[in-house]
Amino acid sequence: MEIPSALKQLLHYPQNVAIFSHRNPDGDAIGSALAMRHYLEQYGHTVHVLFPSEYPAEFEFLPLAEDILIWDIHTEECKQVLNKKNVFIFLDFNAISRIDKLGEHIKNMPGTRILIDHHLYPDPIADYIFSEPAASSTCELVYRFITDMGDAQKINPTVGKCLYAGIVTDTGSFRHATNSTIFRIVADLIDRGMDDTDVQDKIFNSQKEKNLRLLGHCLANRMEYLPEFRTAFIWLSRKDYEDFEIQRGDTEGIVNYLLTIRDVRLAALIHNQPTIVKLSLRSKGDLDVQEICRTHFSGGGHKNASGAYSHDSLKSTIQKFKDLLPLYKDALLKNN
Questions:
Q1: 131 exposed, middle or buried (CB, 10 Å; 0-12, 13-18, 19+)?
Q2: Domain hosting residue 311, numbered range
């Protein structure tokens, strides 16, 4: 990516920086934000990372994760910190609505805004926009941003650990959204001292007993398979949330198990949250779930991984999802 000289000059001298990522942050959001913080602090910047809501416990091992400010919890502290900031960096989202009340608070604040993201259709919310939907992850783009700043030597094992956490999770352990560049990047991170085995162990081997029981319940009691549409979905009710004490992040990755069925091309997790019904869609090949989410459920994301929501009941949302399948039958039955 081509970085303007004015931006290079700005970031090569200490600033007061705020880094943001989206509500319900995933590995790419957390990894990119912390990697950027560790990079910028090497230049003497004062940096804070702020999220609208909490992040999953499996990412607590990332260096300085404990310092992340959560608007839902630390509202007043967030306000005090933001009053001193003059640089705002948006990572892994491309619309100010994705950071909820944080976005409302900073909307009219003076300062330079930088966006680095790989989602489709970015809003013009920043002075400098680095948007590449073809990228595997925002962490890939942060790596390229740092190197194109002329600072490859600042990608130390700590920065590498954070970047790899986002890359490995957003690619589903390199099962999708990959490209030749990402493998070269990971090789470079390993050469620079990043322990990839340790990062994967901490992310994927840190489940609680209840998470395995929840997965078993989903597959045994909440999975529906529709072979005529090469589709499978799992649904969860509010009672399921109570019975399994489901918390933020506990359902992460469950939808991906449906794609392990040989003939399934479309997978969905449809779950009843306190005020909305949330949908997480995944697909194989050229099937565009982003278009499905955007057209029918006010959502969006990536071609093979997107999210959406519904204000209808769980039952009505499930029926709407099923009723849509005939519209996409040709694409679902296509062999690719």
A1: middle
A2: 209-333
CA-derived radius of gyration, the chain: 20
Distance from C-alpha of 95 to C-alpha of 92, rounded to nearest angstrom: 10
Which residue do the tokens 């993201």 mark? 117
State both tokens at 96.
């100010």
Residues 135 and 222 in one domain: no
Residues 102 and 129 in one domain: yes
Structure pTM? 0.89
Mean pLDDT by 10 residues, the chain (336 residues): 95 97 94 98 98 93 98 96 97 94 94 95 95 95 98 98 97 90 97 97 92 96 97 97 89 93 96 91 92 90 89 96 96 83
Number of domains, the chain: 2
- Do 94 and 188 lie in one domain? The reply is yes
- Residue 274 and residue 193 share a domain: no
Pick from 302, 305, 234: nearest CA to 270: 234
The rounded distance, in Å, linking the Cα atoms of 54 and 247 is 10
**Angle, CA of 117, 143 and 201, to the nearest 5°:** 95
HSE of 303, CA atoms in CB hemisphere, 13 A: 13
